[in-house]
Design goal:
The chain is α+β, with helices and mostly antiparallel strands and 189 residues long. A hairpin with a 7-residue loop joins strand 5 and strand 6. It is globular, with a radius of gyration of 17 Å. It starts with a helix and ends in a 14-residue tail after the last strand.
């Protein structure tokens, strides 16, 4: 019975993702490739150098969402280098339109099935908290379920930030070294 339930869940999630449109398919495909390369510290998706700062080095990402700039950033630390992949999905001047698009993108990412060689399939899961105009930073943190593997340090976040004249929606995949209980999010403030 457990096997039948799992197969049914996979079928339903797959059917839902196919009906979500081209944006969803390209976003999910990019997420799949980025997450697959996490164990390699994103080395297979690191493209040409874009720029260097004191603590970061930006690279063009070989994994792209069509029409959306995607960047791989290397953060230097005293212990080891930490990486993140970022896609700036859109900018919207009006809060209500940004809120609507943020919810749509969340719905497209939620329950995405990620398959990594040597691992059981994972499902992206994150609790949606509706943005409010007075909260200038909104974030949904997705986890890979089931947990309990080397992938537990990987984080996927969808954020909606107010940047002077517009709301920016960004998707970020990154390596997190500290425990969740040490992390302060915008919802905690």
């Amino acid at each position: 019975m457990k096997v039948v339930s799992t197969i049914l869940l996979v079928f339903m999630v797959s059917a839902a993702s196919f009906s979500q449109g081209v944006f969803s398919n390209t976003t999910n495909s990019a997420l799949q490739k980025v997450i697959e390369d996490y164990p390699n510290k994103f080395s297979n998706i690191k493209g040409d150098l874009l720029g260097e700062n004191i603590q970061t080095i930006d690279f063009y990402s070989k994994v792209q969402i069509p029409g959306i700039p995607c960047v791989l950033t290397q953060y230097s630390s005293t212990k080891k280098d930490i990486y993140s992949w970022r896609a700036e999905l859109l900018e919207e001047e009006e809060f209500e339109e940004a809120k609507k698009r943020y919810k749509e993108i969340y719905s497209q990412i939620r329950n995405t099935i990620v398959k990594i060689d040597g691992e059981k399939p994972f499902i992206l899961n994150g609790a949606y908290l509706a943005p409010t105009e007075d909260r200038k930073f909104n974030v949904v943190s997705f986890q890979l379920l089931p947990s309990g593997s080397d992938m537990d340090k990987l984080r996927i976040e969808l954020s909606m930030n107010y940047m002077v004249t517009a709301w920016k929606i960004t998707l970020t995949v990154f390596d997190r070294e500290y425990k969740d209980d040490e992390r302060i999010t915008a919802t905690d403030q």
